[in-house]
Amino acid sequence: MPPYEYILVGGGLHNAILSLAILQRRPGARVLLLEREANLGGNHTWCFHAGDVPAEAMAWMRPLVAHRWSGFQVRFPNLERGWSQPYSAITSERLDRVVRQAFAASGQSEIRLGASAARVDAHSVTLEDGSVIRGELVVDARGPTVGSKASAGYQKFVGVEVETRAPHGVLQPVIMDATVAQEDGYRFVYLLPLSDTRCLVEDTRFSDTPRLDRDAVRQSALAYIQGKGWAVERIVREEHGVLPMPWQAGAPSEAPLSSPLPAGYAAGWFHPATGYSLPLAVRLALHVSGCEPASVFGAELDRLWSRQRSQARFFHVLNWMLFNLVEPRERWKLFARFHTLPEDTILRFYAMRTTLGDRARILSGRPPQGLRLRRLFEQAHEI
Ligand SMILES: Cc1cc2nc3c(=O)[nH]c(=O)nc-3n(C[C@H](O)[C@H](O)[C@H](O)COP(=O)(O)OP(=O)(O)OC[C@H]3O[C@@H](n4cnc5c(N)ncnc54)[C@H](O)[C@@H]3O)c2cc1C
Question: From CA 314, how far away is CA 271, in angstroms rounded?
């Protein structure tokens, strides 16, 4: 019998969530979590809406939540709207601590940091140092790779977390403040008030290109802060990222039939229109931790994967329209209109649980001004 029931490769968001689910729902299971860095979870702040995580998963998700708000807002030149729906954030620091504690408490499971996988096979992982570890189920979630794709736009951002000398006055997250100058595609600022005097300010662009000029975008974020009149005591930390917003599936179309299980962002378990993957990590974790390792593959995983593919196809269409049909400076209008839709439709959009009615609502309405008509004709000709 192999020494581990589960070998989880990559200690990022997905395998952290999966390991917590397994440790809680399958007490006694022997889990090995491999991470090449010195800490788990990298340098991120992951947010989610209440509807993204089913109640049954909250038992093991709750300890990860570092901040929770009772609502969130959006701001556009022609619209301000707020929702009384909980919004939560997980920080890398918190994730690292909670996952380490859960492994320490389990007795028989183990985290190996600084362990880089060179080869991932069905029932074994070979580390860079040549050692081979065996397990019954291997889950491969080594994270996204950023590269230029022919069929994608890009979400790129630089976030600065600042400590202010006086309360900054932001009471709830602002998930899009698009009252800013439109540059490099659709531009908005994302505000996460972490305390009265601490705020994560993320300057984000939905752009045609993956090139991120970190210095320039950081300066834009700092200029936004200055525009608000906040006196900054210090910059606490910075995070940045470039995430593809594809309009073609890059991942396999069929669910895997046997170990290793490709998981996480790299295997297509993400939302094509937001770059978020937490809701899907929870769904996969519920499935994997709900059965024996040998029963993970089969009809239920197929169903889960085909629901994910079907939702993703709809978001691919939206991405294609956004990046191919609408002039960059006009893109904000699509998002402003989207945020006038009924609350349930918006929440199901973020959770990747859209219904046919939601899709009709999202796609209906007047076409935005600034359609790239020439592009439309070119595309139609190609089709
Ligand atoms: C700055 C930023 C903010 C984001 N915010 C959100 C958000 O709010 N909500 C959301 O859902 N998504 C967010 N995302 C998207 C995010 O990338 C994914 O949701 C999530 O981190 C993907 O999880 P993952 O486990 O697949 O990959 P990751 O979290 O990237 O984890 C992969 C892990 O594998 C490790 N690894 C890689 N190669 C090896 C190897 N050979 N051997 C061992 N370990 C290895 C890496 O070091 C890393 O720790 C954000 C992304 C960025 C860049």
Answer: 10
Q: Which residues line ligand 1 (CB under 6 A)?
A: 9-15, 34-37, 42, 44, 46-47, 116-117, 141-144, 239, 241, 243, 264-266, 275-278
| Domain match, 132 and 171 both | no
202: domain range?
A: 152-246
Contacts of 23 (CB under 8 A, 6+ apart): 29, 31, 60, 102, 103, 105, 106, 109
Q: Which of 44, 111, 138 to mutate to test the pocket of ligand 1 (most atoms within 8 A of CB)?
A: 44
pLDDT in tens, 58-114: 999 999 999 999 999 999 999 999 999 999 999 999 999 999 999 999 999 999 999
350 and 233 together in one domain: no
Q: Which residue's CA lies nearest to atom 22 of ligand 1?
A: 265
Question: What's the rounded Cα separation, in Å, for the pair 184 and 201?
Answer: 18
| Contact by Cβ (8 Å): 149, 245 | no
Crossing angle, helix 13-25 and helix 278-289, to 10 degrees?
30
Work out which ligand 1 atom sits closest to the CA atom of 16. 25
User: Are 135 and 16 within one domain?
Assistant: yes
pTM, entire model: 0.93
Q: Are residues 92 and 132 in the same domain?
A: yes
CA of 143 to the centre of ligand 1 (A): 5
Give, using CA atoms, the residue closest to atom 8 of ligand 1. Answer: 46
Q: How far apart are CA 15 and CA 8, in angstroms?
A: 6
Q: Are 308 and 296 in contact (CB under 8 A)?
A: no
Q: How far is the CA of 104 from the centre of ligand 1 (A)?
A: 23
Read off the amino acid at residue 380. A
Residues 135-162 pLDDT 10s: 999 999 998 876 656 689 999 999 999 9
